[in-house]
Fold each of these.
Amino acid sequence: MRDGSGVTVIEHGKLVSGTGAEPADDSTVVVKDGRISFAGARDAAPAIGPEATRIDATGRTVMPGLVEAHWHASYFNITVLEDLDIAHPPETVSLHAAFNARLALECGYTSARSAGCLFNTDVALTAAIDADLVVGPRLVPSGQEICGAGGLMDWNPEFRKIGMEGVILVVDGPDQARSAARKLVKNGAHWLKTYPTGDAAAPGTNDHHTLSMTYDEMEAVVQVAHNHRRKVFGHCRATEGIKNALVAGFDSIEHGTFMDSECLDLMLEGNVPCVPALQFEYASVHYGPDFGMAQAVIDGHQETLEAGAESARMIHEAGGVLGMGGDYGFAWNPHGDYAKELSFFTDYVGFSAMDTLVCATRNGAQIMGLDDEVGTLEAGKLADLLVVEGDVLADISILEDRNNLAVVMQNGIVKAGTMAAFTSTVVPAL
Ligand SMILES: [Zn+2]
């Protein structure tokens, strides 16, 4: 991804650095050749020459770019779970993914961790974004997802003899789990996504209190991934599944819905982050009926919502690491709604706006392993930042509307926002 050149000064905005520090009401942020050289109170800023590009942020918030910590590029606003899989050819899936990448950036998400993708499209998408062929969040790919046979994501009935792996590699036993993990590593996945548990979306045999993988299968994936310096994460709702994941050495827990004190101790001990992804549950309960969602599924999502919020509060109060994001790409929880997660955490879970922003910026970068480069506005880091109309700390919901983003900057280049110029002025070398 190319860096900006020259000097840009963003003046007079309310600076929310992402570190959790008190905001500076009248701030200056200096960006030089793609990196932040100063971010702080205006009266402490260095003198800047007249050649600099100046952005007036009066009445605006200056903050780090957001991090979507559980993003599915290929989930294209579907209504039926099985359509996450092979409903379109790879060519169409690629176009969907590229569209969603641009949308995410336009929504202020300058980084994202993929949490599973059809046909490994996210591996190609990551390379395309890095090469400036596609505009989107700086991405960490995960490729296809691993699930145990008969588990949550093993939905293609035997008679279809589909004979083709789409979004899921179905494994039966640790040997197959190891093979799947090796295949993903070979194909470019950085985070290997697994399904230790079921979900409310599949009431009956794979609901949110069931397991979708055995401990041995999970451990096999971890051994392969860690050997190759890759990471493992998993869809973990049932208490035993969370525990299995933490004991097996998972690097992050997705959802962490039914946490108990033993889970919490294990999570804190390993400093393992959690991405609850709760807006999805809220949206399922409230908008699911409009899309014909069965009552048993809605009831399960309600239970998941309440337990998930309780677990998130528990982790937060105990000093654990939470990231924001999750599972956008369903008709009732579409791409583009990403920042609703943040409003949900302030309105429903009870987090302060400041804590929520830290989770959505610094913690997200930490989860991605990019906290040396992005996630906070500090000297030396890449200039991934937003200039937002209004005071985000007073009303975090302003982030939900793209029209409130004046600037979405990545590597010092304004790529989206109402002040953006053309984003495709440089044709990348093929
Ligand atoms: Zn997911």
Amino acid sequence: MRSETLKLLRRKSFKAQQNVYDVTPAVRKQSPRVSLSSYGISPHALEIVIDGPAVTPTTTKALLDAGFNVNVERSPARIFDDSEFEAVGASLVPEASWVDAPYDHIIVGLKELPEDSFALRHTHVQFAHCFKNQGGWQDVLSRFSLGGGTLLDLEFLTDDSGRRVAAFGYHAGYAGAALAIEAWAWQLNNPPSKPLPGVKPYANQSLLLDDVRSKMAEGEAKAGHKPRVLVIGALGRCGRGAVDLCRQAGVPEDSILKWDMAETAKGGPFGEIVESDIFVNCIYLSSPIPPFLDAESLASSNRNLSVVCDVGCDTTNPHNPIPIYTENSTFSSPTLPAKVPNGPPLTVISIDHLPSLLPREASEAFSQALMPSLLQLKDRSSSKVWQQAEQLYKEKVLTLPETLRTAVATVTGTQGAVGTVKYVDR
Ligand SMILES: NC(=O)c1ccc[n+]([C@@H]2O[C@H](COP(=O)([O-])OP(=O)(O)OC[C@H]3O[C@@H](n4cnc5c(N)ncnc54)[C@H](O)[C@@H]3O)[C@@H](O)[C@H]2O)c1
């Protein structure tokens, strides 16, 4: 082995893995995970985006019933209490203790691991945000390659038709449409100097729905009608969520315009958008398209549009089809003002973590969608979804500079015993 590689490996020391109590405070503070082995699952908690795990109490029970061992890290912050996991029979383990799990455990989490430099030896199932050359991707990816670990990235788990196995879209659209209706009603009853107040995650969906219904009634009292809502990307995950929210809130069916590829084929900008009260964009932007609205269409005397919710949130994409805002809004400040030459004020909702408004339901839906694949972890070598994910990981590792990919740790035995890890050149 080249001395350069050896130095790198030493620097990215594995000492944190020798004993659970050797782990640095930084590692200890990370969000909790679940660890499963082929006879048990040990994943990192899906705390990232959602404040809820990729494995919920319901899906934990399904995994236990299927013969997995499931170790769930304790967490005071997770949307599901530790006791809910205990009640279904999971083993509760200390926060951040996955680093000491035997190497044949699979570490399942939602969010990326906190930044650190020690190399990773386990197989990790999580969102890692390093396969598309994102900032710092080499640092993230090389932790796996240098440690002999494997990254099976949740973002790229696809079924036979190439569709993602699990995603958070439905609840993003649902939450986005909910906030859009609330913003519409608020703006009718308040001056532009008083933007929609901050929102907090809801304990459950029916509480959100109650709020939307009562606020929509306030808007209706002022406007004399319920809002007309145009959803583009209505056939996708986010779009279906947005349409369902509108229906459940009581927007009449003929006031919910459901557009997808066929309706936008002629190319924007579209008069129907500015003539609606609310526009919810739910498209997956895969190639440049003409804008859906622009300064000219917004200047139309037919404009009723007062709220745009861009669930797609291609905020920094140069081809963002909603080129009327440049930053993301947040739960504490959900709306941003957009420039309009005349007519009613216009605000934009561009929150990029909308499912967090409904952490319980969003986690449960994600976890249920992931479940059939998690069950296949028992026999990963014959599972197409995991084989594809592993192949993709290997291909991405090959795009690393040689010094970050050539050393691979072959792990034998269990963790903790010095000398059970040997590094081999590839
Ligand atoms: N803001 C958030 O918190 C949040 C959360 C989850 C997903 N998203 C984003 O939302 C977007 C949609 O995700 P999804 O899971 O619903 O995708 P999806 O693939 O399930 O659905 C996208 C839909 O958009 C349609 N579409 C694509 N281009 C179109 C066009 N030019 N005109 C009309 N329709 C078009 C497709 O036909 C499809 O029906 C993605 O960009 C995703 O990253 C945002």
